[in-house]
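Morning run. Coffee first, then this:
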Amino acid sequence: MYDFSKETNRFNTTSLKWDVKESELPMWVADMDFEVCPEILKAMRERFDNHIFGYNIIPNEWYNAYILWWKNKHNYVIDKDWLLFSTGVVPSISSIVRRLTLPGEKVLIQTPVYNIFFNSIINNGRFVLESPLKYENHEYSIDFKDLEEKLSDPQVSLMILCNPHNPIGKIWDKETLERIGHLCLKHNVVVISDEIHCDITNPGVSYVPFQSVSEECRMNSIMCIAPTKAFNIAGLQTSALCIPNPVLRHRVNRGLNNDEIAEGNTFACVAAIAAFNQGSSWNEEMREYIYNNKQYVSTELEKNLPSVYAIKQDSTYLMWVDVSAITGDSVKLTKYIREKTGLYISDGEEYGESGRCFVRINVATQFSRVKDGTKRFIDGIKMYIKDNK
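And here it is:
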């Protein structure tokens, strides 16, 4: 048993998330407040005790750790040759955008979606092409008519898929992924599938790796995978790309090396190996704890703010909350809540215009803080309603 309720103090630790006033409670950026899995810490201490931190190679154990985890956990068999090390999913996506598209071309994304996708596209001189998800009766689905229309644009040669989807927490099923893969191949569009949240699913729920659903998907995609979200080690700069297509893999590999993101720090492989080889029990207990946190927030909102709706999710620790009955401007709302209550959450507009009436709340923290944050959120909404009558 692991103690996820143990309160951790992250003030004055150069934490991005906790770079706030002491009276504030940050529940925004996607990292967890739980101490790292003891098995990972043990492996890192053993490496630290070597006392030398020179250049590193990617050991066979690193490849094997990924291969066994995806085989045992996700029923997908990965060949060693398909795997490339990179320092992170976001740097990899940016590198791929530069390598597989030309300046001025378009990259398709399905909004609302992880806000940094926009940066990876725009900062590299490409244009964002949005295919908004359909939102009906508090459920999200893909507008395949719009998707194919956008994919058929000759200026589109790359699509970034989020699977599971951040921020809505949806796991795309096999049929949906297969249909996406078919359309992308039909229109000569390569798929980057960001699967970094795949190991943060509800208990008993599994996700479907994009490459596992068909040969079309497998040979026309780059799968971005990592232990960083699921094991709270994002600061260690470690991830992998899975690319079965040898031609595509060669092009991406050259890009990673040209951008100098193909070599890890001393602890990057050590932590990943320990996470996948020894962290299964920790991960399962963490998922259960997160699920209970989400259930608590949903119940409290339903009881105290019936007009505010927490979207039902199968994955991630990021709750996506519909506040359209309160306001059409979540930027204004989240700013107000932070000023009045000290609760720091994300406005939905960061994830695209279609997220303007939503907020994102990170519940990967101790239950005591979840209770505190939920109360602050409810109080803040009620004050906002009163002040904006």
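The chain has two domains: 25-37+280-387, 41-278. Good start to the day.
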